[in-house]
Structure formats: C-alpha cells, structure tokens
Design goal:
alpha/beta; Arc Repressor Mutant, subunit A; 4-stranded antiparallel β-sheet; 14 helices
C-alpha cells in the first residue's frame, strides 16, 4: 500500500471548524499531485484509515468522496480504492533540488546501478546464485532464538575463524580469529581503525592518485591527508618521509595500487615497514582485490612481512563475493586486540548474523576458494577481450596501460581531452566511467578513463561499447 511508506500516519493538526476531512483530503491530494502516490496505487480503506487515525469512518468517507468527485481516486469495489489511472503529477515550482556538478561527474562510491564498465562490481552473471540460495535457505531453517538477538559487534566467531584460516593460506598472514574484526564495508573499517589508532590533527600518508573516499573520510574526522606520489613501483616512500616524516599512519594498496594497479616493490615495502617501526606509526594495508593477479600468483600481503606489529590489514568481500552483502574485515596486531574491542563496543553495531553465517558456510564448504579460482580465469579472459575490443575502436584516441592484475582498465587519453568531461558525456548516454583526475590531488596527472571489465562478456560487446565512447569524443 503506497501510503504506508512511513511507519505511522502523523496526527492531524488542530482545527477551528472541526473539518478533519479537509485535512485528510489535502494530504491525499498533495501526495497524488506531487507523485508520492502514483496512478494505480491503492489507498487504505475508509474503515482501516479511520481505525488507524482514531476518527469516525464518516470523516474519512467525506474526504474520499471529495477526492473522487475531483477525479483523484476511483473506487474499484472488491479491488479497493486506487489513484486514478493516467493522472500526471504536477511539477513543483517552489522546491529547487540542486543537481550534482556534471563537470566532475563525481560518482557516489559506489552507485546502486549496473552500467557498462561500472567500477567496483564483480562479474554478477558468474556468481553461483544457486549455491548461495541453498546455503541461505539452510541457514534460515537452522536459525535458533539465540541467532535472532543482536549480532556480536566484532563479527560472528565462525566467520572470524574462517577468515583467519583463509588469510594464512592465501595471503601469508599469520593471525588468530580474535585479531579479525568484521565490518559493514571498507569505510566502516577505516572509521574504526582511525578511531582506535589516530586522533584529530594527525597526519596520514595517502597514495596520490588514490581512492577518494579514504581522503574524504579521514578529512571529515579532522585527520590531515598527506598526498604521496605513486610511480611504477607504488607509493614513493621517500617522498612521504620528506613531506611528513612524523606522520602517524600510511594507507597503501600494495597488491594493486588503487587506481593505477601497480604493485608496491619489495624495497619500498621494507622501507615503509622500517619507517613505521622507527616512528611508531601505523600502516593500513587495503587489499581490496589482491586475489586477482593474472601474470603470476597473487603477491603475499604486506602484513606477512610485518614483524613489529605495525600493519593493520583490511580486506573486503565486495569484490570476491558481492557488494550487496556489505561485509568487510580487518586484521589488527595482537597487542591492539583489546583496544579494537573497546572501539567496536562504542562505534560498531555488528553486521547481520544471517549474512555472516551464509558467508561462513560458503567458505567452509570450499565454494569461496573455487569461486575465486573461476573468477581469476574468467577475469583474465574478459580483461583481454575488453582491452582488445576497445583498442580496435579507440586506438587513435586512447592508450591502454599494461597491468598485472585488478578489475579495471586504464585508458590514457591522447591530446588535451578532459577525462572529466568525457565521463560526464558517458554518464548521459548510460555508460559508466571514472576520471583519473578525480582520484588525484593536484592537476598534473594525465587524463585517463577507469573502466571495469568484469561484466563485459566478449570482445564484440567491448567493440560495440567502444564505438559509443568514440562517438562522444
């Protein structure tokens, strides 16, 4: 029932002449003309609405009679009363809704859509939905009253244990379940880490270019981001030492730098660890898609080299399972477990336990490992097909970077083209893209498009989409 978009109808206001029916009439008329109630939407029966609002049924019927007489609603007998089909909502003239700046084409990281080349999405067509549905049904059937209370703020113990085992085997991280904290996403992870280890006024190294939400989130917490350049070997650690030698932390993406996809070299990994140890600083390792490397085996995590307890490792299920489950995690040094437990009690509400149980079963029964293996092979194929298809159409306008892994391509624009303007035009035509300059602090980064390839199923599809991009250049 369309009217019940709020949990409770608010009480009517005071009236001099007792015309409550008029207030009810006004509410429905405004809802219909503004488009909140749409043609064919069913409205409550007079009896039900009278009971809910504590009014006489005749008062409601008087309002409904007036609405029907003016053509706003129609009675359909047993089918109830509906908003008249064919009514068009009026365009409000007194309310001005600001529109986003199309020059920046700034996405909400990430939008709730599925567009060609959309960043942040795994291969949705290849997800094992039948297996997931079976596990979900089993978890629901086995629920007990103890499973229906508030979830543990640090995460389901079974899932924490499974994550610890997975990280030991696949990423070389030696940790116990108590060091693993489950969150509702990357931003939640960063917020909890910052609250536990940092304070207002602290300075933190961030890769430049780098993931924009990290910079925005820390800035909103009054933590000062220090942009540190990235080259073919990852974050230039020596630059960070010159810019802010006493910074309290560094946020890095060592496996596949976000967004350039280069890997942090071993000398720089060691230099970063030495800096953190000598300055009692923290390293936040964001390993958002480290599983997807196509030229060799996935690289060991930076955390696996940590001997002094200075690295907090952050991972996510968004890229390897689905973004919609809203599950991520991080691993803290053993000495910091108690501190993070305290912070979790204050600032975390826990993630839905049913979802965690399904993920735990998905891992325990081997589906998770098999899914990653299949996706690694599929993504290698789709990356090659997408790159080949786009290059055949856009070769005169763009150059595609060679990358060892990741889930997106980088298309360097030739000449003086603006990546922001091109992305804005693409959005207008139903195509997704992100502008590299939106990930950069400063203006010396060359223009480039960031395009996800995981949902591009063939070279032909890439060519067709590439032609649409070419028409916008």
């Amino acid at each position: 029932m369309a009217l019940r978009k709020t949990s409770k109808i608010s009480p009517l206001g005071p009236t001099v002449d007792g015309a409550f029916y008029r207030q009810i009439y006004d509410r429905f008329r405004d809802a219909i003309t503004s488009g909140v109630l749409r043609p064919h939407d069913r409205i409550p029966s007079a009896r039900a609405l009278a009971k809910e609002m504590g009014l006489a049924r005749g008062t409601i019927e008087a309002a409904y009679s007036l609405l029907a007489a003016e053509g706003y609603i129609q009675a359909r007998g047993q089918a109830g009363t509906i908003v008249t089909p064919g009514l068009k909502p009026r365009t409000p003239v007194s309310v001005s809704v600001p529109r986003p700046d199309s020059r920046l084409a700034s996405p909400s990281f990430r939008p709730d859509s599925i567009l060609p080349f959309q960043m942040g999405l795994p291969a949705l067509d290849a997800f094992p939905r039948k297996i997931w549905a079976r596990l979900g049904a089993r978890c629901v059937r086995s629920m007990q009253p103890s499973d229906m209370v508030h979830p543990a703020v640090d995460g389901l113990p079974a899932l924490r244990a499974q994550i610890a085992v997975y990280l030991q085997v696949s990423r070389g991280i030696n940790c116990s379940a108590c060091q693993v904290f489950v969150t509702s996403g990357y931003r939640h992870s960063i917020e909890l880490i910052a609250r536990a280890l940092l304070k207002s006024g602290d300075r933190v190294w961030l890769e430049n270019p780098g993931y924009p939400p990290t910079r925005e989130l820390l800035g909103n917490m009054q933590i000062a981001p220090v942009p540190v350049a990235v080259d073919q070997d990852g974050m230039v650690v020596s630059d960070g030492m010159k810019l802010a030698p006493r910074a309290r932390a560094a946020v890095v993406t060592p496996a596949h730098q976000s967004p350039l996809c280069v890997s942090l070299s071993l000398p720089r990994r060691l230099a970063l660890l030495d800096w953190a140890t000598q300055n009692s600083a923290w390293i936040i390792e964001d390993d958002y898609d480290g599983e997807y490397r196509y030229i060799s085996r996935p690289l060991p995590a930076l955390k696996s080299l940590d001997r002094d307890g200075r690295v907090v490792y952050a991972g996510t299920f968004s890229k390897v399972i689905l973004p919609s489950i809203r599950l991520a995690y991080f691993v803290v040094p053993e000495a910091q477990v108690e501190r993070f437990e305290q912070i979790g009690q204050l600032f975390s509400e826990g993630s839905p336990e049913l979802t965690q149980r399904i993920v735990s079963a998905f891992i325990t029964e081997g589906h998770f490992a098999r899914h990653i293996q299949r996706m690694r092979k599929l993504y290698a194929e789709r990356r090659n097909a997408t790159a080949t298809g786009l290059e055949s159409v856009l070769g005169k306008h763009m150059r595609i970077d060679s990358q060892p892994g990741g889930m997106h391509l980088i298309l360097r624009l030739q000449g003086q083209q603006s990546d922001r303007q091109l992305v804005a035009r693409m959005r207008g035509e139903g195509l997704y893209g992100e502008a590299l300059t939106d990930w950069k602090v400063g203006s010396n980064e060359a223009s480039a498009l960031l395009l996800n390839f995981t949902n591009i199923d063939s070279q032909r599809t890439a060519e067709t989409l590439g032609k649409r991009i070419r028409d916008l250049i």
